[in-house]
What does this fold into?
Amino acid sequence: MGRSIPTGSGQVLRLDKEHRPMRPPNVTLIRFHRYSAAALLIAFAGNCGIVCAQQKTAAEEKPKIRAITAFINLDRAQYKEQVADALKMLRRAQTTFESRGYQVQTIRIATQPFPEYMKGLTTEQAVTFFKEYDALAEKEKFAPSIGPAMLNAGDNVAQGELLGEILSHTKKINASLVVAGEDGVRWNAVGAAASVMKKLEETEHSQGNFRFAAIAMVPPVTPFFPAAYHTGFGHQFAIALESANVVAAALKDAKDLGMARQRLIDMLAASAFDIEHHAGRVDQETGWTYMGIDLSPAPSGDVSIGAAIENLTTQPVGMSGTLTAAATITAAIKNIKVKQTGYSGLMLPILEDKRLAQRWSEGHISIDALLSYSAVCGTGLDTIPLPGDISADQLSLIIGDMASLAVKWHKPLSARLLPVLGRGWGEMTDFDDPFLVNAKLQSLDIK
It folds into this structure.
């Protein structure tokens, strides 16, 4: 109906729609703008909430810095002064990162291959020197690596024998032995590495092998231990991350692999670029050259890369989908455009990760499965518990498989195998180290 308007004569004027006065166009426009502005504000608030939530998640899932590793060209005549100089830089870097909210777990010092600065010494003299170096590391609270034995093809296996003696008589020193290079697999070095592992099996709780690895195609200035070493002039540093928590957050509830990959790139890159920025400051302020960051998402106990993978696959690690998850994570890491060094792939250290140790104990994960994952991802065979009656020949076969894979795909891999003295398959390991999780020993025949 129309609207009625009384007139002065007492008549009533009835206005139908076509007789109603139109609102001025500017009034309609004003109302339109008001409603549009309100809608935009609501949309902006919603988007802000999403962004803020994402930023909050990223902040909550900031990675730890597993290690700041300095590389020095050690000279026996002045090693204490060299260590003091390196520690000055490392502690300054640690303070820099901690002031920005990053927890720094360890500071580390790695040298050139130890045979280079042990020339002319007897085995007894070399062991005495490294016992003193080990004591210095304990006193100054840094982790030491003395580089690899048998760096070059044709190096004498006596270097491996000396390394076994050094590690047997020290408690903190890390080292490695090179079993493959551009020339292919070096089978005499493979056998030498197996012999070192059998010797270190006899250390307390068989934990000496935690500080030793057979390495293949691993480049210099890798910050992760035991593989860390350099071949240049030193006075360099690199950074290793512990970021399994970031991976877990990125993969949780991802609708598909594309979303999982992009979320991981976005979340990990935010921290990686920030860390690189502050590393650059340390470089400029100290004169030590920054060599890059190893983005391998190392786990630690409850901070589990195994759980992160299961967030994506919704299956136990070792079941179908694990290899695809490994490839997805590694592809994301390789896509982050910071200066990278070391492995920069997926790490699956069985005894440093509670979920991985659980799946190993349940029989879901085997050595052959880990080697297949290594073809598309990170580091090889890491902290693998083995029965104590495994022979050196059997260890050589396992190390050889890892080395062959590294040569085939021209990628850095390593084998850190932990045979446990006096324990057989079906029994639990008995390690006494805060960084190791105990697990059930599996038969070597498991596939």
Observations:
- Residues 25-60 form the longest helix (36 residues).
- Residues 1-59 have pLDDT under 50 and may be disordered.
- The longest strand covers residues 64-72.
